């Protein structure tokens, strides 16, 4: 993410915009404006203009795609090492070899020092190596000011053949094989997506007010079926390798068990994939950690077109789907005729996502039999009921807002004190709105199935629920936009922390996690 | 959707004439946008492709596509004409890139670009008439430094720099494309410029080098 700019820079930014726009408009009209004249006209930013104006003028033939990459006449890389493309050897000595390399994910050049080990590279050392590379890359991601970085890598690399190290864990492997290599199998009668047997606490006026289903795109059985097929179709990515289901695994309540997800070209995203559970009940209808999508329909097209995630072109995609022997009929069933458009595609995906409602957890069973959520649930253990009381007393005002007890979803983004540093960390909503009062604010997914949706937080920093509870209990950091309710320490003791975790696990809905109507239809 | 500036009166009159079937009106309309579209191609075309394609090829293909789809556009009017032309052009460019860069049998990535790519005349026009080899070297070095700094920027920052500074889109048009308020687009542009300046400074690019 971008570094937030200090408030005092705002005046500088406004002047810069004015001067640069005027300068470049003249350049683009074939004039040769004098940089010195601009420096004189804007004396308070003269130094910046003398550097910046010639710079922006000098790059007419570049594109974002090529920016930062080696020039066209750069030698072929010698090999790849994790996120690094080795370009050439700079020098060698008793301590190892230094190479010029490119860090692919950031598109920048680095110096890479390789320390040889005796005995060759074992699978174990290769894993350590890959781990070190990932950590190094993360460190470099956090500090964009570094011009070059020396990485010390302990491995026996000389003469062992350089290739990208294997994935560190089985979970790194793509979850979905190319759909084109498999057969689409759908039931003769579509599954029931439209009419759900929701329990009573979903039908209260307060609970229903959270439903973001637009009047012009209600969930239908055929629409959600089409959405399901699209969700698992790898053709939604530019190179037929990644589907939505590649990073959103049903058994994990549609999250990615990895901290960051790999896109269609193997590049890593910069945030953890969000759970897709009960998106229908996100009251403000905004999506992504930074709430940049203003509707679920808009959200569905963004990962498809993202240059990191799926890299697909919507025109190409609709042309591809139109050539398929199944899709025209699926679109006809869903929308009345077989025309395939990106708008219909987004509507079908949104229908499928809105149909993903989890409502059959142990909590729901207990709630259905109790008069009030505050009563002890007869199907709960003493520890789970204790955890519920603690949750209602300390967590529910954020995670169960609006006088309902069904959705476990926040109705607005908040800062929960993850980082003290608000200038150089992910700004979340504030990076979208550029409102300093919203820096560090993030959307929170529903807590339903939270037991299986780790790692947690927007950057997946917490591996388990215990770490999350510990954070709220004693590790909340000061932040200008910290939610007021977190300014006091909750200081849960060990028993209370265990009880809270036990309660959160009652939100797991095993029927939902295995429901075939949400599963991959390509076999 | 963020409201966007409507087409100008002159553009609307041309579109009306096209709807009445006047072919000359279409030629006139496209001629008004041709140089801008050509510049967009030069900006957005991947470097390896520049050895194979001239921006004019892409613009020509775009013209054909625009002609083919224009009646549908006039019926629906989903966005202002200028943004629709841009969208169509970028789709065509992406198609070319896919054909040339992604098809294994034609992998242009294995080729070496000619040092004088087709966008060089445009670079000359914009960067100034460099008559001596040393001036050309300085320009190349400058371009490389800026390109490297742009590569270090976050994608959002880089994109808004291209949209406003290089493509010359108005903030209202950018706000339509990015689905943000025009004021936010302007602010984001300012931040991106300042970040570019900071990166250039951190990379040791001084005024004298530029």
Q: What can you see in these coordinates?
A:
The complex is a heterodimer of chains A (523) and B (210). Chain A has 523 residues and is α+β, with helices and mostly antiparallel strands. Chain A is built from 18 helices and five strands. Chain A has a five-stranded mixed β-sheet with strand order 1-2-3-4-5, covered by helices on one side. In chain A, strand 1 and strand 2 (84-93) form a beta hairpin. In chain A, helix 6 (221-231) packs antiparallel against helix 10 (327-335). The radius of gyration of chain A is 26 Å and the shape is globular. Chain B is mainly alpha-helical and 210 residues long. Chain B has ten helices and no strands. In chain B, helix 8 (155-166) crosses helix 10 (182-202). The longest helix of chain B is centred in the N-terminal third of the chain and has 22 residues, at 23-44. Chain B is globular and about 60 Å long. The chains are: A alpha+beta (523), B mainly alpha (210).
* Largest sheet strand order of chain A: 1-2-3-4-5
Number of E-state strands of chain A? 5
Approximately how much beta-strand content do the residues of chain B carry? under 5%
Please state the structural category of chain A: alpha+beta
The H-and-E topology of chain A, N to C, reads as HHHEEEEHEHHHHHHHHHHHHHH
User: Helix count of chain A, per DSSP?
Assistant: 18
Give helix % range of chain A: 25-40%
State the end-to-end CA separation of chain A. 38 Å
Mean model confidence by pLDDT of chain A: 82
- Count of individual helical segments of chain B: 10
Biggest sheet record of chain B? none
The oligomeric status of these chains comes to heterodimer
Question: Spans of chain A of 5+ residues with little confidence (pLDDT < 50)?
Answer: 1-7, 60-77, 116-126, 139-175
Secondary-structure class of chain B:
mainly alpha
Low-confidence stretches of chain B: 104-131
Computed CA radius of gyration of chain B, to the nearest angstrom: 19 Å
Largest sheet of chain A: 5 strands, mixed
What's the mean pLDDT score of chain B?
A: 77
